[in-house]
Predict the 3D structure of the following.
Amino acid sequence: MSLSISELLQSRSNDKFTLHEQHLNNQMVRVLNTIGYNRNYKKAVGQYLYDDKNQEYLDCLSGFGVFAVGRNHPTVINALQETLTLELPNLVQMDVSLLSGIFAEKILQTTPDNLERMFFCNSGTEAVEAAIKFARYTTKREKILHCEHSYHGLTLGALALNGEEVFREGFGPLLPGCSSVPFNDLERLEAALANKDVAAFFIEPIQGKGVNLPDDNYLKEAQRLCHQYGTLFVADEIQTGVGRTGKFWAIDHWDVEPDMILMAKALSGGFIPVGGVAMTQKIMDAVFNRMDRAVVHGSTFSKNNMAMAAGIATLQVIEDEKLIENTAVIGEDIITSLAAMTHKYEFLKEVRGKGLMIAIEFGAPKSLSLKTAWMMLEAANKGLFCQMVTIPLFKEHHLLSQVAGHGMNVVKLLPPLNLTEKDRNWVINSFDQVIADCHEIPGSIWDLGKNLASHAIKNKKTK
């Protein structure tokens, strides 16, 4: 009996949510139903999603940044199809693969000159886990430092570097020796490093939860302090890298040379899980220092031919289509246009970001009627105002976005890097209309706000 995935999808097309309720995370289905995101998507092309009514949606999340070149890019598909038909020897464990060598060569051409070696794995959190091990072995120190409000993954080691308690609660005890310092605070960083017992300082050049940008001199000085006290400086570029911020790496905005760069997400065009660690020769030589240690750390599927081919093709697309240049121009235009609205909308506090990593932050207004409504939502659940923004953005303007983090009044945009002028206008006009509607009290958007507040209060009572 032959298997047809197309026929299987067609025959079970109405079972998606039922299957998840029965066999997977049914709470996710409840979330989608509650906020009205329960769509049956049938097709995805580039930056657009299409549901079973053929309604077009602009995806401003891109799978949390995975689909930087857009969904189903034909160049990457062709590379994968060709790789499948070549009958290549794959994952021959007592061997090394040509494709992984080519991919490593291409990635290292984009990194600072001090990074000469690559380690491949399957995901961002695996890259973090590898870097923790590499840092400890290289420095012979145990302590790992990270920033408050950071996000470095959800496996147990990476979770110890996660600055949000909502992800950590109930999963302890976590990896010992890990502690945090405030982001953008050089004095506190130096105090934490001064005992010369910290193996590595892990930092997102731009924090993903909230899209918090560093001061102009912060990363450069943080690197200097790390080197002064014998600590490895590790840039977590899992979300910010591969063109996201209008440079290939976010560190390029501040001329930083870390000892390791962590990468994943956009690295393979979203088709095949892949992660990596770019590192100095010194770190590679320290960890893999003898022949009997050649396999002291690895990952079974890490250098599989499909992932490597997808990665090579993705880098080619980014170069050929000048997506980094496009990201810098379109992103700056969106940020500038939305920021200009702060003067006419009391709720709109700040718009910030680099490239197509954008935060739209809201805050308490001055007008009494607006302030009263704001406080009603905040009392029910901090950050609820942003849900009141993202839901009509999706349902009325067909723009997919998300709150930037737990308890934040920040909406985050992380769209594909191939946005057009049409998409730019779509984003700006959608936010303009929704934010304007938020200033109309009473109004339909505040009816939604009351319903959200009611749900939030009920959930608090059932805990």
About this structure: The radius of gyration is 23 Å. The mean pLDDT is 95.
